[in-house]
Amino acid sequence: MHDLRVLTLNCWNGRADPEAIARFLVERSVDVACFQELDPAQASAIHEVLPHGKLEPAGDHSGMGIAARLPIQVHHVSLPRRDARVAELSPTTWPGLADGLQLLNIHIQAPHVRPWSSLPLRRAQISELSAWLSEHRAERCVLVGDLNSTPLWPAYQRITRELTDGALELARTENRSAERTWGPFPGAPCLLRIDHVMTAGVQLRSCQAVRGFASDHSGVLADLELDGEFG
After folding, report:
1. 10 Å Cβ neighbour count for 92?
2. Average of per-residue pLDDT across 217-229
3. Where are the beta strands (DSSP E) in 57-140?
4. Is 34 helix (H, G, I), strand (E, B) or coil?
5. Exposed, middle or buried, 94 (CB in 10 Å: 0-12/13-18/19+)?
6. Over the chain, what is the mean pLDDT?
7. pLDDT of residue 3
8. Interatomic CA distance for residues 53 and 69, integer angstroms
9. Please, are residues 9 and 18 in contact by the beta-carbon 8 Å criterion?
10. Where are the domains of the chain?
11. How far apart are alpha carbons 8 and 106 in whole angstroms?
């Protein structure tokens, strides 16, 4: 039995520390990492330590990417304004993986940016994402990223019709609260849980919010309980 270690991190539109991100990926032996608001300097540092996948940096909050230790296929999922990314982990390139795994990286529009236009955009993004999940979700699927939605918000509730909040379920079994992930600036107390790990057909062995990247978001580091050895 081996845990597949996955990180999701909002890189704060280039302001998170590239070297801190790369160092964390190595020190914590991350297998696959999903990024939102990724810029070129961050992408370059990440590629040095996780050379596979597809990183698409930008400077306008739209940069995203999925990086991995071993080969993966990454495709776009068409959503209004900002596509999601989906990676397919295949048993042929991840030795010992008994079945394939689908991994989605999501960044939903924030509700506070021009709310007269962002709220309809959010609804459209969630509607398109839900439709895609209904039609294309694999038996084993993990969705991660910055959903800009707490469990109280309609966007979150719509997604959890299709997927389970893995971090919340694990926290309940451990008799604790799921950790919050966003504060107004690096080092500030985290006020909201808006970065998520959601699953279908996959159990989480561990899940924790991790800091130290100089971002306003904590990363979320999750160990997925899967068969096989990835080496």
Report:
1. 9
2. 86
3. 64-68, 73-77, 84-89, 101-107
4. strand
5. buried
6. 94
7. 80
8. 8
9. no
10. 2-226
11. 10
- CATH number for the domain formed by residue range(s) 2-226: 3.60.10.10
78 burial level (CB within 10 Å; 0-12, 13-18, 19+): exposed
pLDDT higher than 70, residue 229: no
Identify the three-state secondary structure at position 124: helix
Backbone angles phi, psi at 74, to 5 degrees: -120, 130
177 close to 170: Cβ distance less than 8 angstroms:
no
**The one-letter amino acid at 198:** M
3-state secondary structure of 5: strand
Taking the C-alpha atoms of residue 142 and residue 104, their distance in angstroms, rounded to an integer, is 6
Q: What is d(CA 212, CA 21) in angstroms, rounded to the nearest whole number?
A: 8
Q: Which residue has the tokens 């990286």?
A: 105
Nearest to 9 by CA among 79, 74, 106: 106
List of residues 6+ apart from 163 with CB closer than 8 A: 133, 137, 141, 143, 198, 199, 200
Q: Is there a contact between 121 and 108 (Cβ–Cβ < 8 Å)?
A: no
Give the Cα separation of 149 and 185 in Å (integer). 18
